[in-house]
User: What shape does this take?
Amino acid sequence: MLGLTVPLWTFTAEGAWTDGLVLAVVLALVVRPVVMAVLLSRMRMSTGERVFLAFTGLKGAVPVLLGSYIVSSQVADADRLYDIVFVVVVFSVVVQGSLVPTVARWCRVPTRSVELEPWALGVRLRDRPEGVARHVVAEGSPADGATVEELDIGEDTWISLVVREGRLLPVSGSTRLRTGDEVLLLTGDDEKTCAQLFTSHPT
Assistant: This one.
């Protein structure tokens, strides 16, 4: 990849470090805040949220790719221009990227840590499939605390998947459901009838 073959020892000789850092600071502290102030002027946001959006907005692969077009087009000073782009990207990712949590606290923008979810099951279909239903077990519903075999889901319906707290459970007749479980059913019966099993009803 072109972005991995930048000769760092030529930066000082060609002035790429100085020009790149100056451009990066101007983009981060002047150009982007002014542009974002105009774009966000009609949106209902707090001052902290506006400042946070103006500071963030990391730039990486796309600028490097566009910079590679300069080199492939063989324009004047192509290598130096590409080096400047590289410096701007490094500044944006390393400096701005590392300061995002700190700026979020200063601006009182709530953030939270999210555990990695390396596994995902998903099927995308053109049309909504017949006989497939997804329900979440509600607290106090007939399914809450019941085993699969205790549910009156009919002979033509079976539970295909149960997901609990991001983990896939093996499904058998003795599998006991609880609040928050995501259940995928394959059914030939009325979907509304099955849905009532997973919905809490006022007493």
Remarks:
- The chain has a mean pLDDT of 80.
- Residues 78-106 form the longest helix (29 residues).
